[in-house]
Amino acid sequence: MKEKIGEILRTKTLRQSAITTTGIIINGLIGWIFYILVARNLGPSGFGIFSVATATIALLASIFNVGVDTGLVRFVGKYISSEKEKAFRFMKLGLKIKILSGFLLITFGWFLVPFFSNTVLAKPELLFPLRLSLIGAFGWLLSFFVTSSFQAMQKFFSWVGLNIFMTSLRLFAILGLIYFGVSNVNFALYAYIYSPFIGFLIGITFLPKFFKVKNEGSVAQEFFHYNKWVAVFTVIAAVSSRLDTYLSTRLLTLSDLGIYSVANNLSSIVSEIVLALATVVAPKLASFVGNVDAKRYLKKLQLFVLALAIVGVIFGIPLSYYVIPKFYGLSYVPSILPFSILLVSRAIFLISVPVHTSIFYYFSKPKVFVFVGLGQIFLVGTLGWYAISSYGYMGAAFTMLVGNLFNFVIPGIWVLNKFRRK
């Protein structure tokens, strides 16, 4: 067992993960301070509105990304060493798609937001914040192009540095607003959405001069053939992962929504660790050509994430009894119980990293998650409506626990069967 642990600690993946995880911890700490300041200054109701708006930014950015980021990691990672010009064509095509997608998002979304806020969510006060979300999502689309390109080229220091820079800009902005006594939802959103645009403009200067390449349309067929299932899955996954937020928005008061949002936000540090791991693992898995190496790699990775998940839950839940009242304020003490459930839910999500990334990048079967995602939407939608209506934000937390368990077990069975057949 000691030799096994030593072998895991010596792997290149762990060293790269250490870079990204350290960066994620720093980035997460800065982001955590930002959210604490917003939550304390806006109160539960205002923070509830802010959280719906930021969740909408993430949802729209995922949907209108149409699988470009995953395609960049897949194809740029595959060709950057052997066929650099071809890799640059994928980058140029990906950026063009994102810009077009962003303009379509703002154009059509501006007129659809009133129906969504007034009729679907039954919260008219969300109208302007959700319109700001359209602009914020466009910024995310652009900044994710840069970070995905860094990931594909395995430039993890650049990936970490840009993320920390953008999060720091948000923190400085909210500190400035508080200093000048300007603390409302809209200004907090302004502080949130401007940094990705600046991050994109600065980050793109650190990429190779890919925009000089010609004939990027020649790789469109290969790009879209892979991305079509990724795009469909991304829409489904984006909806299923945030369905609890929108059900809670519809069924809870804004104050209760703010309580749940603090629990959700604090537990999301686990998702940041997942992102750090996936950033390293994805291009590595894409490079494997044989089952023996892939299985050996995935076994080590599974042990690593399992240990992280166990340690996180053991220390995270007791720590929340101090952190939430001390930093967020006494009005958020009810967030402790839903946080405990959500932390276990996120731990299951962390454990599923080897399964999910192997399906995407080793087996290249993103369509598997289309069916898994549809099942999760049905499960979360039906269970969530009943659970939130009956048990409030505790029902929302329990729904996410069940949803993440489903999202781990079903793909896990698929991967095991796939390896056994080969």
Automatic annotation (TrEMBL):
Gene Ontology, cellular component aspect: plasma membrane
Chief localisation class: membrane
InterPro entries xref list: Poly_Biosynth_Transport, Polysacc_synth
Signal peptide: none
Membrane topology type: Multi-pass membrane protein
Pfam family, one: Polysacc_synt
Tree of life domain: Bacteria
Swiss-Prot/TrEMBL keywords: Cell membrane, Membrane, Transmembrane, Transmembrane helix
Ranges annotated as spanning the membrane: 18-37, 49-76, 97-116, 128-147, 159-181, 187-208, 229-247, 259-282, 303-324, 336-356, 368-388, 394-416
Keyword Secreted (UniProt): no
Subcellular location per the Swiss-Prot or TrEMBL entry: Cell membrane
Name of the molecule in the record: Polysaccharide biosynthesis protein C-terminal domain-containing protein
Taxonomic placement: Bacteria, Candidatus Woeseibacteriota
